[in-house]
Amino acid sequence: MTEIYDVTLRDGNHALRHQLQSEFVKEYCKIADDSGVWAVEVGHGNGLGASSYLVGKSFESDFNLLTAARSVLTNSKLAVHTIPGFATIKRDLIPAIECGVDVFRVATHVTEANTAEKHIEFLANKGVIVHGVLMMSHMNTIEGLISQAKLMSKYGASGIIVMDSAGHFVPKDVQERVDALKNVLHVEVGFHAHNNLGVAVSNALEAQSAGASIIDGASMGLGAGAGNAQLENIIAVSGRGDLEFGISGLDTFLEMSLLVESSYPNNLPRTTSSSTQSGIAGVFSGYAPQVKLLADELGIEVGLLWGEMAKRKLVAGQESMIREIAQDLMNL
User: Fold this and answer.
1) Domains (ranges, CATH) in the chain?
2) How far apart are CA 157 and CA 96, in angstroms?
3) Which is catalytic among the residues 14, 18, 109, 168?
4) What is the rounded CA–CA span in Å between residue 308 and residue 322?
5) Is-contact 164 190, C-beta < 8 A?
6) Does the annotation count 44 as an active-site position?
7) pTM as predicted
8) Is 267 helix (H, G, I), strand (E, B) or coil?
9) 287-325 CB burial, b ≥16 within 10 A, e <16
10) What's the CA gap between 82 and 87, in Å, rounded?
11) What is the mean pLDDT of each run of 10 residues along the chain (332 residues)?
């Protein structure tokens, strides 16, 4: 059976400029806990320890948000996203374990799995579930993706999550990658979609059909850039076919969706010409606000800026380079 992994309160925090508050976390988790989702991921958009002026300051600390979620989650697991470099073992991982986090996702760029070795090995020996995440997964060949996934598995990850951070994939791309990993790995395989090209739900269902045992989604699609695969739509569409998530019904997911829609009506993601351009270019969709701001400020065509960022293989965490690239384009 495929499990649903809810990223609304983490990836969705990108759309909220990391201003998520503990009271909303508690309200959402109370509903999610009855929905049948396997885990609810909570925190800053870039994960544990990421709050900073570079990528965005959190309104509340990791500890506050995790404590709020833990206080009401009894059926669903509490999960976090962690990127080595942002998160450290002593400052972030150990306190998160003490907060009662059940699932840790350790994420790296798709060519840099070796940077997760210490974090994964540490967590694998602490009695928690640890999964490896390969972000920007379109930026490697299938053979390279397999090689990096094997490293994470070797370090102790019990699952590998393929993350389409830029919303670049179409269903065929997803099917090829999930198939390839399922054929060689002896751990779970999951998939995380973004909606830049409008096919996030289709991609999520294609991953499930190809054998992925963990599928990510967010209520109202709340997430970076054009957003994630819309969780309630994954459930609704799967219920009309042969796909099975072991979910009792759609009503609770619609309640979660309505809570997000009514609480954050001005932050709901949508596909735009800019998000489509970023998806085609294969650039992290969370950069959309900075790209628009700089394009307006400097009078640069948005698509040109996305294209130049793609040429330089920009990845998440390199926000400071966007202005430099835009200024270089001004001097051409």
Assistant:
1) 3-263 (3.20.20.70), 273-330 (1.10.8.60)
2) 18
3) 14
4) 10
5) no
6) no
7) 0.92
8) coil
9) bbeebeebbeeeebebbebbbbbbeeebbbbbbeebeeb
10) 6
11) 94 95 98 95 96 90 97 97 96 97 97 96 97 95 97 98 96 97 96 96 96 97 94 87 64 96 95 88 81 87 87 76 86 70
